[in-house]
Amino acid sequence: MNSTPQFIIFVGAALLMAVTPGPNMIYLISRSICQGRAAGVMSWFGVVLGFTTHMLCASIGLTALFMAVPLGYEILKFAGAIYLLWLAWQAVRPGARSPFEAKNLAPERPRKLFMMGLLTSILNPKVAIFYLSVLPQFISPEAGSVLAQSLVLGITQVCIGSSVNLVVTLSAAAIAGWFAKNHLWLAIQRYVMGLVLGVLAVKLLTQQRSAA
How many Cα atoms within 13 Å fall on the side-chain side of residue 158? Predict the structure, then answer.
């Protein structure tokens, strides 16, 4: 397995991605504000299952990739960096909306809330890019089983992402209300998000794959 410093760096990268607003966070905030915390939590359960689905698929797929194409992770790395740069531009471009500006959503039943949360998470490109481009940079075939490394890192991301999204879900009204009264911070939040995504993209492009 990789060293403790590398694992800490991975935790930091996972946390940065988790706190960067994306489709999951936008949906959970909007759902919690429009239908209450209970609906938000039910949607959150679906999002967590989506995280788990991404994690399992990526772990199995990365194992096959590293065995079949040892340099395949380079392709994923560049594709992921380009997507992160696109997300950064979407955050800072003129006319962009902050994810903390909630959307109006019609009330839904618990089962549909769960399914909508699941689909939002599974179809979330930010999560997919993290697993297919960021996570592989912390895997070293020389350090042991690729599958085991993928699962450990993936479970770590699921825990971090789920925790951040749960906090956002439970405090959605307060967060949105605060930003509504402080419009300047909505703009600042967008630029900070764009900066974080841009830095992560550059880091991804320049980072060498970890050795054992």
Answer: 21
Structure tokens of 181?
């009264």
| pLDDT values of the chain reduced to their tens digit, one per residue, 212 residues | 567 788 888 898 888 888 877 778 888 888 888 888 899 999 999 999 999 988 888 877 766 665 555 565 566 667 767 777 777 777 677 766 665 565 667 788 989 999 999 988 888 777 877 887 778 778 877 777 878 888 899 999 999 999 999 998 998 877 767 766 776 776 776 777 778 778 777 876 776 554 43
Helices marked H in the chain — which ranges? 4-19, 23-35, 37-68, 72-92, 110-122, 125-129, 146-170, 172-181, 183-206
